[in-house]
Amino acid sequence: MPQRILVINPNSTQSVTDHIDDAVQPLRMEGGPEIECMTLAEGPAGIESQADVESVVQPISQVVRTRDNDTDAFVIACYSDPGLHAAREATRRRVFGIAESGMLTALTLGERFAVISILAASVPRHLRYVRSLGLDSRLAGDLPIGLGVTELSDDSKVMERMTAVGGRLRDEFGAHAIVMGCAGMARFRDRLEDALDIPVVEPTQAAVTMAIGAARL
Amino acid sequence: MPQRILVINPNSTQSVTDHIDDAVQPLRMEGGPEIECMTLAEGPAGIESQADVESVVQPISQVVRTRDNDTDAFVIACYSDPGLHAAREATRRRVFGIAESGMLTALTLGERFAVISILAASVPRHLRYVRSLGLDSRLAGDLPIGLGVTELSDDSKVMERMTAVGGRLRDEFGAHAIVMGCAGMARFRDRLEDALDIPVVEPTQAAVTMAIGAARL
Amino acid sequence: MPQRILVINPNSTQSVTDHIDDAVQPLRMEGGPEIECMTLAEGPAGIESQADVESVVQPISQVVRTRDNDTDAFVIACYSDPGLHAAREATRRRVFGIAESGMLTALTLGERFAVISILAASVPRHLRYVRSLGLDSRLAGDLPIGLGVTELSDDSKVMERMTAVGGRLRDEFGAHAIVMGCAGMARFRDRLEDALDIPVVEPTQAAVTMAIGAARL
Amino acid sequence: MPQRILVINPNSTQSVTDHIDDAVQPLRMEGGPEIECMTLAEGPAGIESQADVESVVQPISQVVRTRDNDTDAFVIACYSDPGLHAAREATRRRVFGIAESGMLTALTLGERFAVISILAASVPRHLRYVRSLGLDSRLAGDLPIGLGVTELSDDSKVMERMTAVGGRLRDEFGAHAIVMGCAGMARFRDRLEDALDIPVVEPTQAAVTMAIGAARL
Amino acid sequence: MPQRILVINPNSTQSVTDHIDDAVQPLRMEGGPEIECMTLAEGPAGIESQADVESVVQPISQVVRTRDNDTDAFVIACYSDPGLHAAREATRRRVFGIAESGMLTALTLGERFAVISILAASVPRHLRYVRSLGLDSRLAGDLPIGLGVTELSDDSKVMERMTAVGGRLRDEFGAHAIVMGCAGMARFRDRLEDALDIPVVEPTQAAVTMAIGAARL
Amino acid sequence: MPQRILVINPNSTQSVTDHIDDAVQPLRMEGGPEIECMTLAEGPAGIESQADVESVVQPISQVVRTRDNDTDAFVIACYSDPGLHAAREATRRRVFGIAESGMLTALTLGERFAVISILAASVPRHLRYVRSLGLDSRLAGDLPIGLGVTELSDDSKVMERMTAVGGRLRDEFGAHAIVMGCAGMARFRDRLEDALDIPVVEPTQAAVTMAIGAARL
Questions:
Q1: Taking a C-beta distance cutoff of 8 angstroms, is the pair F196, F166 a contact?
Q2: Domain locations in chain E?
Q3: What ipTM was assigned to the predicted interfaces of this complex?
């Protein structure tokens, strides 16, 4: 039967899901897995605080349990990788978190990588996570652009800030690759890579790439 | 006004709360903070799986928010430290997790420490956590006794297994101190330390100790 | 124009290339990149010593330069990842080494991974490499089966040894996932995973998976 | 019999001992251990050089041996933790060093901590020590205010410098918590925490907190 | 029979070999090993890219094999330590790489060391190498002066840049010792140490020092 | 004027000094530095406890200050490297500790090294030290032979135990090189290396080697 990858946007902002869907379009191949992107209706508008992260854990596990029999691999499309381990416990299918996949992919692109986050409050959570993955010796830095998830609609302001922060990470912190630290940043990847002239990883693309392998193998 | 430390047992097994209460009795001092131990009625009987851990996160945050105005410091008395960061976000009071406090205390007792866990399934979760704390170079090992939280009532079987596992951690893995990896093991500390002849940390005692400082300062 | 991934087997043993080709067959999708597997005729029969590794570095760079204009991504299919950095310098296309990709993929499968190598002499080289990648805190162990690349044709002996070594890595070293440390082991993945009951990564599959993303994005 | 914690100021400056005594006053509880603060008469006026550190090691061990039968726990109140391991060898009682305890406590307050030291010459010694404790991945930085122990009497100058250095550690180095790197800074804790708006640990308070637990358990 | 240390300059620039020969002159002792410095005629003028590094690996192994019977220890005098492991496989004699020896020596001189490199492109390669050696926690930084090997002939420009970069590594990055990251910088050691007032290691001197021990023991 | 290296045996056992003197004999070269070995008369017979280590710190600093004007480099010949940092503060000359030098030398000999210690009580002290040096990722293990310094006179017993322990470190712990963890073991190096068939570092030889470079440069 046809294979399917389910990409779960745990925030309830449909435009973020739409942007994710656009970002993964190049990964849709005629003979390849269907890539279905869904919005978690019960999620907050943006996942910014630890409480937001926690609030979507059980709903994500519920989706995973429900869709287990018609999905080959899951992607949790929020840079906090909320509920990743609970989801992995809930199914025998492979589950990918976009932060984990994004960072692993960045490791193939440069000696050290850095993360552009949305809010300062996200950074300590990211640092804890990077350390839990044992990847901290490869992290050059993590800096925020100071905009919440729902503020990412102002394209030129976002590009301006991402370019400034990315340049600082590249020049002062020694980053050789960038990971965009929010699924809602997806549509900026190409422009940012042109602006910074170092590789930029869109983490949902990274996770879906790994998921394609999981689904096919 | 009198100070108070609230120790939250997130599993719903009253006997575990009772044993925790006994364990912290020596820390009750006239003129010192009241130490109140509560059972989270909506928690599972034992916290063993990742799903169990996740299920108590929001209830713990709720307790913390509710009790914020009459409590000086909180202790989450489950070795998975569930919801520690969510709880810290929910209050300006200090919040301690018994695993974090237990391990930090063990660092003052020996060059390397080891953890005796209840189930094999807990161990990967603990290893991730130790790494997230940056303490992995001090961890000698983490081995399970193969009993669930609610099976800890068979005293002699538990002592036998803890002594065997602890001896292995000491002799084969090079541990100089042990941290008991489940709040429900509290009553075995003294006997285990006698049996192993190396320091044994009861993590709830360690956390309440740190909480006393937080409450008084 | 159609996309292409070029998988380079740097040893000159055609049967190894054939096995690699079989291993990546599930990753061939209609509408997806062509996956071409080639044998480096000037390579040694097996890459076992450091001298063997060094001998294929410049030939690999030469292939990469020659094929740059009709290939979207390259995979170096030898667990020593020979010439990976030289190849990355030689082209703007993405280049993947199967050891690096295999280990990064293993990180999504378990808290710690281990490697089954062919010869004892390979192990120090692998350990240096894991450390250079900053992944050493996630490595549980690396043990050899004591057979050279060209001896991998005796199926039952190889399976027997891989199962024994894998079991030891799982039970004594605490591995939660295995990476097969030689491209020539490719055909054993499924059987080994069944025998060990923990995830087993075939590293060429892991690298081609990442390469598909690189080619499509 | 009543419990006692002996806090040893290894420098011979009585005003430092007086400030330490004030700092630990909140930890005195009617039913709790007596907290006795003593000055090591034979110590130097300030412990600033490695030679100073070494000069107090044997005197501290001597105090510990002498007071072993009427003391339940010892605290060495100098940020170099001089003679900590010799003291631990000299008694079965628990011995705490304020640097170790201060840093362990800081780990419960923020994702990364930083130290404000007195002199530049102290910093390499601190860095060696942090690494020996395995805590270096949690250290954001360590900067000096450029004043010796006996120069800490100029309140406004000290506050000005500590605030400037602390702000730099917070803003440039990414510290989420500060540890004051000299027992003689004790009285500045509250003011510094107000000024910096991040948690500030007074390390003698941290050590006495841990010592209370050791004495009571 | 008389002992000999063979120092191989893998680039073909005779003046670099001459400067290395001058640098090791103080290590020539009447009763000590002969120190022979040779130029690898087939090497590139300067080793700057990864391709340059790879191009000299097999020639170096060939020299080592050829000279094995009349040489007691070998030194590879290029800061990329090209072919170090292949050379060690090719002989039972001891082989030293100047980067490895330089960094090991720097560890005895200060709490953290930094490297002054020639080109920005060298830095990622160095960082990978430091990590492979497990020395990354002692590395304060690595910055380039932006001059190629063959541009090192302009004495005053090189001194000016090395002093500026070294000062930055000392003051901003916290280095307590410097390792000069190119054999061609050899003649600047004394002047740079005077200018920076912190120890400066000339890595070929460090490697020959270790080689003398290897030859004599 | 002639150069001199002063090797200080901080224990008062003359036979240990005699064995050290024999061990460094190959490093005496005509035209090279004089290598003077002295016994610290006021030291304990053997340095085994932390108290022993502390007891020789100030006497060593005193020797260094006294001999500063006629010595070019100092070696502290006790595997605890007692007073190394105090000595470095006391003189502008280079000071080497045999443990530090021994381990740094071992890093050039194998991917991971292990230490054969005399007593179990030494091991925690060594582990702390290795971590303070940032070398812990290269340490395979550290095991004791269970004999005190003054018991090392029974040659066949010592060889038997060192061979057993060394073999265990090689086969079970994955060591590729051994460092002998006590200056008093010096005379066993050659026999042990023959028995174990992996490189064995005699740490005083390693330190004097580095000191020769320091004296000559």
A1: yes
A2: 4-97+205-216, 100-202
A3: 0.97
